[in-house]
Amino acid sequence: MPRFKGVTERDRRSLRSADSRRIMKRLIGYLNQDKLYMALAILFTAIATIIDIFTPWILGLGITNIFDSVKAGRGIDYGYLNRIALILLAMYITSSIFYFFRGRILVKITQKTVFTLRKEFSEKIQRLPVAYLDRFTVGDLLSRMTNDMESVVNNMRQNIAQIISAVVTIIGTLAMMLYIEPRLTIISLIVLPVSAFVTAKVAGISQRYFRAKSHDMGRVDGYMEEIITAQEVVKSFTFEDRSMTEFNAINDALYDNAYKAQFISGEIMPLMGFISNLGYVAIAVFGGFLVLNGAITVGSIQAFFQYSRKLNQPISGMAEVVGALQSAISAADRIFHVLDGEEEAEVEDAAPLDKLKGEVTFDHVRFGYEKNQVVIDDFSLHVKPGETVAIVGPTGAGKTTLINLLMRFYEPDHGSISVDGVDIRKLTRENLRSHFGMVLQDTWLFSGSIKDNIAYGKEGATDEAIRAAAKATYADNFIRTLPNGYDEIITESGSEISQGQRQLLTIARALISDPDILILDEATSSVDTRTEKLIQKAMDRLMHGRTNFVIAHRLSTIVGADVILVLKDGNIVEQGDHHSLMARKGEYYELYHSQFEGKEI
């Protein structure tokens, strides 16, 4: 891992151990949201475990009574044995009741934990900057929110009970063993540090494979999300074999790390069993010697054997707990990595702008997605209210980057951007973005009715406003031809309607939001000529009376722009209207002729 670079293996283990303790402490904080339920879970587990601890001792009393009766040649006291049996039955029933309620409480605690984590994760995504989210694939983020959270809750639910039960069992069992025979107890105690040492060593090795497994699970989900989304492209380019080869490589890495994680953590139990059996043999030999010498009764040695097993059970059980905890910690680490992401800083007590004239100024802006890779260099521009500014240039010139900076998806490294004379960094992002409308090349729609998709642009939009926006953008005609009209349900991909129709819906969505500044990013790049003209008419109506930024590759769509900016390597190399730029016969002239082969429109 990068955070361990340049340190020794011993330091790495120390750092991983510190990370695990920090993550575990944080998880416990989530589990302890409702202190009353957690206290009841601990109490019920402790009561049930204590009851179970006393059952071998009571059973030993009955066995001793039978042994003494047979040895003395007298009749067995069945009345005494019946009382022992009734006491044991009552104890078993009582402990089962406490275990039942303990289980229900733990389900409530863990489900509330994962509910809180999902809620915080979802809210965090909304507060994280686009620059931070760009580091992840969609599938990886979904994996963290689903697979990793399920791993946390499933592993923690049983582990909490086992940990509580193990602590109470070890303390109570040792107390009973000391009461029965201190010398035998010493033999049992030798097993504890040996078991703890082996468990710690094996768990340390398995932990890094659990972390790698969680990481590979995110890669698998991310890759599958991309492949499923782009199935048409995959099939049209006969990419199936290559996609399977790439998937198999990722899946093989997941299999390898998952196998090693499970195998190594699974070896803890057999090792604990071997160590426990050695201790058990020693107790049997020495215990038999004590019985022969009359230092201990048969019932007591039988009870001690059970306590020895009972002591080894939580120790062996803790081996499983450790393995499960490694998986939970690795999953929680991936979740907390997102929850700890640096959020977008907002200006406190920022004065909101109620209405914008639409004046925009870029003042010596410099920006790069990476420190050593400048995309925009010393960019300056003044846009008057109501102007339409078209931005053209080759791929990678910085066209979309300017929009990202204007919307504060990213912050400039140098210089400033202002609207109506106010530096946008002095406004909250919510207030700034509320004045913008966007129509993008990728027509994003969500699963729901057409009416809801249009109303997404304005909270509380009425049916009349929705229909008015649809009519104004020429979407009403095709909507009325649908079986359910405005109530027609479409999926996220919008495959039920054409690309052009989807674009008209996004334009209607932008219109209903009534923005002061409009951004059009290649809104007609993937439709036919007839639909393009219809969309262009809708956009002309949408752009009327607003400041507009238009990013276009089809130069025919921006001939009427007030100002055309030609970008190259992050700088304005030409600026003017269509006719003046054509007369100059520079970069714009070459771009235009490369599309229209010298035919002006």
Automatic annotation (TrEMBL):
Pfam families: ABC_membrane (PF00664), ABC_tran (PF00005). Residues 360-594 form the ABC transporter domain. The chain crosses the membrane at residues 36-60, 80-101, 159-180, 186-204, 278-305. It comes from the Bacteria. CDD domains: ABC_6TM_Tm288_like, ABCC_Glucan_exporter_like. The keyword ATP-binding applies. Signal peptide: none annotated. The lineage of its organism: Bacteria, Bacillati, Bacillota, Tissierellia, Tissierellales. It is a multi-pass membrane protein. It is found in: Cell membrane. This is ABC transporter ATP-binding protein. The keyword Nucleotidyltransferase does not apply. SMART domains: AAA. Residues 39-327 form the ABC transmembrane type-1 domain. GO terms for molecular function: ATP binding. Keywords: ATP-binding, Membrane, Nucleotide-binding, Transmembrane, Transmembrane helix. PROSITE patterns: ABC_TM1F (PS50929), ABC_TRANSPORTER_1 (PS00211), ABC_TRANSPORTER_2 (PS50893). InterPro entries: AAA+_ATPase, ABC1_TM_dom, ABC1_TM_sf, ABC_transporter-like_ATP-bd, ABC_transporter-like_CS, P-loop_NTPase, Type_1_exporter.
